Each structure stands twice: as structure tokens, then as C-alpha cells.
Amino acid sequence: MRFCLAFVVGVFMLSSCGDHNTKKSTEVSDVALVEASEAKTSPNVNFPIYDFDGMTSLLNKKNDSTYIVNFWATWCKPCIEELPNFERTFAEQKDNKVALILVSLDMPSMWEKRLGPFVEKNDLQGEVVILDDPKMNEWIPKVNQNWGGGIPATLIYNKSGRSFFEQSMTYEQLNEELDKFIN
């Protein structure tokens, strides 16, 4: 049953993956913090694994940092193409209290053989976490009410505001949006 759900999620995400040219930026009111449950672990997987409820605290921190949360997968070409922009921005903005959270939507069958080697080969410095929650129709609108589920998708937030983008982002676009939070 779990494999079937993972397969359906993968097919949905794959069909949603594409080059979205329309910028969707939405200011959303603060969401009440939900206590994070412990991340699950899996043998031979070096990343925390969350269901959406467990990951909610990563999307709602109220400290002095600004967070870039990128939803991506190793099978999504636009996701892979934009990752260097996120890594470069993260490296340049660390002193400005910017954190990068890379939320992998890869299927469980890909975690060990595809996700792990990809992260290692590309020396990703952002915090990589896995979202393993087949109830996407429930959690997608909790991330952003206008999110259609396509990836790549990015949430930028801090204690003062939130913006969401269902599109690929260039280095310039990412920094232009990030500047609205740190300047």
C-alpha cells in the first residue's frame, strides 16, 4: 500500500514538474507553530525524514533568520538546474542570517541510490530534509494556499513575512526576492 501511494505521489509530482513562468508570490498570515515530531530515520539514508506535521516547525520559525525553503526532487530537471543558484546565494548570505532548507520530494526508493549520491556529488550545503507524506492534497495548501503542487517551488520567509514562488528561479530572481527580507 505504501509503495502504491509513493508511486502515485511520484507520478503526480513528475507530471507537475515543469518550467513555470508565472510568478506566484503571496503574503500569508502567520501560522501557529506546531510542535515538530521527531524525524524518522531509515537505514542508509543520511537525511531527516518528516511527514508534513513533523516538518511544520521548519516552515514557521520565528527567530531573526530568513529561510529559503526549496521543494525539489532529483528527477525534476528544472529543480536540478536551479539548485546552484540556491547554493550560491546561501553561501553569499550566511552572514545575513539566511538559512537554506532543501526539501526533497523524492520517492523512498530513490533516497539511498539517487538522493544521497546527488547531494554528495554536488556538495550541497543547504540543510537537506525528506518530506515523506503521501497526503499531498492536505499539505500542499498548508505550505501555500495557491500552490498547485508543481516543483520547483520556493518559500522565503522570516518572522515579518512570507512569499511563495511556484517556478524556477534564476540567481538574480532569488536574490531580488531575498533582498526584500534582509534589507
Key attributes of the depicted protein:
disordered N terminus, Glutaredoxin, seven-stranded mixed beta sheet, globular, 183 residues, alpha/beta
3D structure, described in words:
- The chain has helices at 2-16, 52-55, 77-93, 108-121, 136-143, 171-182, and strands at residues 40-42, 45-50, 66-72, 98-104, 127-131, 153-158, 161-165.
- It is an alpha/beta fold and 183 residues long.
- The chain has one domain (2-182): Glutaredoxin.
- The chain has a 7-stranded mixed beta sheet with strand order 1-2-5-4-3-6-7.
- Strand 1 (40-42) and strand 2 (45-50) form a beta hairpin.
- It is globular, with a radius of gyration of 15 Å.
Summarize the model shown.
With about 180 residues, the protein is of the alpha/beta class.
CATH homologous superfamily title? Glutaredoxin
Number of strands: 7
Cα-to-Cα separation, first versus last residue: 48 Å
**CATH third-tier fold name:** Glutaredoxin
Physical arrangement of strands within the biggest beta sheet: 1-2-5-4-3-6-7
> What characteristic shape results from the CA principal axes?
globular
Sheet/helix structural class: alpha/beta
- The total of helices stands at 6
The CATH architecture category equals 3-Layer(aba) Sandwich
Portion in strands: 15-25%
- Radius of gyration, in angstroms, nearest whole number: 15 Å
Number of domains: 1
Helix content: 25-40%
| Average pLDDT for all residues | 82
- Strand and helix order: HEEHEHEHEHEEH
User: What's the CATH class label?
Assistant: Alpha Beta
Q: Describe the main β-sheet briefly.
A: 7 strands, mixed
Low-confidence stretches: 1-16, 18-37
